[in-house]
Amino acid sequence: MTRGSPSSAPALDRIRVGSAPDSWGVWFPDDPAQVPWQRFLDEVSRAGYSWIELGPYGYLPTDPARLTDEVTARGLRVSAGTVFTSLHRGPAVWDETWEHVSRVAELTRAVGGEHLVVIPSFWRDDRTAALIEPPELTAEQWRHLASGTERLGREVRERHGLRIAVHPHADTHIDTEEHVTRFLDATDPDVVDLCLDTGHYAYCGGDSVRLIETYGERLGYLHLKQVDPEILDGVVRDGTPFGPAVRQGVMCEPPHGVPELGPVLTAAQGLGIDLFAIVEQDMYPCPPDQPFPIAERTRRFLRSCGA
């Protein structure tokens, strides 16, 4: 049996599977190394997905009416938008943060999305490895991060009707099991959900199934991704920053990496809630013909898991 692909998997009827521009090598609003947005939409639909994320703001059309038409014409729906924040820096960054967040939240809501994925800012440059700031937060910065994220969750919910889901990410201050659990313990579950990215959590040494079993009440969103353990060993040994690690292929096509996604999906199903599970295979940059066949195979694999 192929690792992670059960021969007779139960139906995961609470899991809504989708994909994202990231799985097509899209990291920036505009970059000649990336596929045009029209091709992404065409291919994500052809690959068998029903849900998408917006990706970096400005990659897809930002006019709600046009975006709705383009998405609907391909049989797609939007699950979430994504923002990067630096809330650990305190109240001084709030106005700038809110200007960006509100713009993305407004578009997300206008096209039917329900969630806003919030990613902490990087502590080192993902291309040069230069330190932007220390990798460990001070006690005061942790307080700013917790209080600022709670404020963001309340404002986004009250003004735009969305829930935020904070995404632990490699080379950010919310990455390892220690940091993730510290963040969850410090924030109000009523306004701050967790977006568990299985690949990033494994990249940073975490166990996704254990996190779901321990903090399941906090899980509001799921990203599906796998890590190549052999490449990861070299990344950890050499202290390679995330961007170059991606170019080395550290995030690999399921089911060839870790964690096994079948047990993750089964644990998520066991929570008894409707949950988006969005495929995000980091591979920037990549040849334009590479993403589609991977996306098709990944969708077939997830169906074999019952999703």
Automatic annotation (TrEMBL):
Organism in which the protein naturally occurs: Streptomyces cacaoi
Matches recorded under Gene3D superfamilies: Divalent-metal-dependent TIM barrel enzymes
Transmembrane residue ranges: none
Domain of life where this protein originates: Bacteria
Pfam families, per database record: AP_endonuc_2
Ranges of residues in domain Xylose isomerase-like TIM barrel: 41-302
Protein name: Xylose isomerase-like TIM barrel domain-containing protein
